[in-house]
Amino acid sequence: MSIVIAIDGPAASGKGTLARAIAQELGFAHMDTGALYRASAYELIKAGMSARDKTDALKAAQILVKKIKAADMPDDILGKPSLREDRIGQKASIIAAYPKVREALNILQQDFAASPPRPYKGAVLDGRDIGTVICPDADVKIFVTADDEVRAQRRTKELQSRGLDVTYEAVLKDMRERDARDTARTAAPMKQAPDAYVLDTSALTQAEMLSQALEIIREKVQI
Ligand code: DC
Q1: Whose CA is nearest to atom 13 of ligand 1?
Q2: Is 26 contained in some domain?
Q3: Does 37 sit in the ligand 1 pocket, CB within 6 Å?
């Protein structure tokens, strides 16, 4: 059985960077599940479909699932820098509220957790519902949080460093909107699992985040 580590948390909490660093440190495979929703939103826009239409959204998710299954390197589809843009994040958050879209994407995530690609001996998944819905039996669950103003500062810096013309105020507003939608939806809302460890990263450097997360993990599993 592969070891599964579930990392959940709101936008720009540092969960993606943390999940990637944990996977690298432990020699585990990593899946950024938000990228599945973002890539579905990308397919939706590309096909001229509407995020407000559940049927369109499901079609977009199905197009993505087909592409990923046919791809040798799914990372090429999910790692596109354009997926990180806020307009894609907003659309991803809208279509992520549709149960059928989630259903279409859940199987990919559960398969990845159960059988990570060789030669990896475990999997780290990050998202919103990993510890609650996708992998409720994960060996370790961490819920990553940070003050929303700190998160908005981090996201603004990240986007500006990639040459995007954004302001802190606009990023904070978008982020609060997205968090509210991700938390309020009925289908698999963003929620801390009762058995998750909470890691507040507001005042932590990336190195500190990683070392605290590894401490939590090593307390729970022998690696
Ligand atoms: O983690 P992210 O910002 O890349 O995610 C983009 C959107 O996708 C997020 O606003 C909500 C949705 N999402 C989700 O509903 N469930 C997940 N497991 C991951 C992301």
Answers
A1: 34
A2: yes
A3: yes
What would the pLDDT profile of 142-201 be if each residue is shown by its tens digit? Answer: 999 999 999 999 999 988 998 889 999 999 999 999 999 999 999 999 999 999 999 999
Identify whether 221 is part of a domain: no
Could you tell me if the CB of 39 is within 6 A of ligand 1?
Answer: no
Q: Indicate the number of domains in the chain.
A: 1
Q: What is the pLDDT of residues 193-216, one digit of tens each?
A: 999 999 999 999 999 999 999 999
What separation in Å is there between the alpha carbon of 27 and the centre of ligand 1?
A: 24
**Pocket residue to mutate for ligand 1, from 15, 36, 82, 93, most atoms within 8 A of Cβ:** 93
Q: Kindly report the pTM of this predicted structure.
A: 0.95
Return the CA Rg of the chain. 17
Q: Which of 32, 33, 36, 37 to mutate to test the pocket of ligand 1 (most atoms within 8 A of CB)?
A: 37
Per-residue tokens: 168: 């802190």
Which range of residues forms the domain containing residue 168?
Answer: 3-211
**Tell me: the pLDDT tens digits for 75-121?**
889 999 889 888 999 999 999 999 999 999 999 999 999 999 989 99
- Which CATH number fits the domain that encloses residue 81? 3.40.50.300
Distance in angstroms (rounded) separating the CA atoms of residues 207 and 101: 35
In a domain, 161, yes or no: yes
Q: Is residue 59 part of a domain?
A: yes
Ligand 1 centroid from CA 11, angstroms: 8
Q: Retrieve residue 221's tokens.
A: 């599993």
Distances in whole angstroms, Cα of residue 217 to Cα of each of 19, 32, 221: 12, 19, 6
Q: In whole angstroms, give the CA distance from residue 126 to residue 2.
A: 16
